[in-house]
Automatic annotation (TrEMBL):
Residues 2-134 form the Aminopeptidase P N-terminal domain. This is Xaa-Pro aminopeptidase. Its cofactor is Mn(2+). GO terms for cellular component: cytosol. It comes from hydrothermal vent metagenome. One of its GO terms (biological process) is proteolysis. One of its GO terms (molecular function) is manganese ion binding. Belongs to the peptidase M24B family. PANTHER family: XAA-PRO AMINOPEPTIDASE 3.
Length: 281
């Protein structure tokens, strides 16, 4: 993570933009692959990460604009977790790493939100994109699932966009890391685009480059000679002379800054006359 001053500064700037109320950021939770203990790679919510910097599943962050206080709600690990992962830091110590002094068990969040609503203060939150987040917001705010997205705070959306659209030097450095990895991914893809090669071989190779150099791919690799189908995730084709191959791929850093680059190349490494003419359009 960045220095804690980065996150305290971001939260302070958000308070100035909103003027009143509280801001609720629900971090993402673990998602089971095919049974509870076999989970997908955890990816934190980007906005939670931006303001709180913590990659722990099941956390919630609250920014109290009226009282100039920040909170983390999350549970300390239990003995079952310790058996698998070893001794882990307490939530209060994790929160302190990003400049937050107030931490409470996750179950205390509902009471905190209820008290805020009873005081007539606004609860700002962003539109959720995960079903479990919709359900959790519905329970916390006591509104039907279908009303959660329409109730998202427009003022918060505008404030977050205003803050996040301007990148500081730390962020630019992270983006450049992701771009450098994407360079190696795409140049490798170009070199491998030879007749007789299966698309999956190339897609798997460049995903491995991302994992080895930076971190997970920033989205599922799109690599195909059937580029006329947008977001084509099928990689079954065998490359043939005369075809064009599109690669749309990028990498993500540990701090969740990403690259996203698309390139189209001729199979075999050289454009024929027709391909070259079309490529220049």
């Amino acid at each position: 993570m960045f220095d804690k001053s980065v996150y305290t500064g971001r939260r302070d700037r958000l308070k100035k933009e909103l003027k009143s109320g509280i801001v609720l950021f629900l971090g993402n939770v673990d998602a089971a692959f095919n049974y509870p203990a076999n989970q997908y790679h955890f990816r934190q919510d980007s906005n939670f990460s931006y303001f709180f910097g913590l990659d722990n599943p099941g956390f919630a962050g609250v920014i109290d604009v009226d009282n100039n206080k920040d909170y983390i709600f999350g549970n300390d690990v239990d003995i079952d977790d310790i058996i698998w992962m070893g001794v882990q830091p307490f939530v209060k110590d994790i929160a302190a790493q990003v400049g937050i002094e107030n931490s409470f068990p996750y179950n205390d969040l509902a009471g905190f939100i209820n008290k805020t609503i009873s005081e007539g203060r606004k609860v700002h939150f962003l539109p959720p994109y995960r079903g479990e987040t919709v359900i959790e917001l519905s329970a916390l705010l006591n509104i039907p699932n279908a009303e959660v997205k329409p109730a998202a705070s427009v003022d918060l959306i505008k404030a977050v966009v205003k803050l996040r659209e301007v990148k500081d030097d730390n962020e630019i450095a992270e983006i450049e890391k992701a771009l450098l990895t994407a360079y190696y991914m795409h140049t490798t893809s170009m070199k491998m685009a030879m007749p007789g090669v299966v698309e999956q071989d190339i897609a798997g190779t460049i995903e491995g480059i991302s994992l080895a150099l930076t971190g997970p791919i920033s989205f599922p690799v799109i690599l195909s000679v059937d580029g006329q189908t947008l977001h084509n995730h099928s990689h079954h084709n065998v490359l043939k002379e005369g075809r064009m191959m599109v690669t749309d791929a990028g990498s993500e850093t540990a701090l969740h800054y990403a690259s996203d680059i698309t390139r189209t190349v001729p199979v075999g490494g050289k454009f024929n006359v027709r391909q070259a003419e079309i490529y220049q359009i």
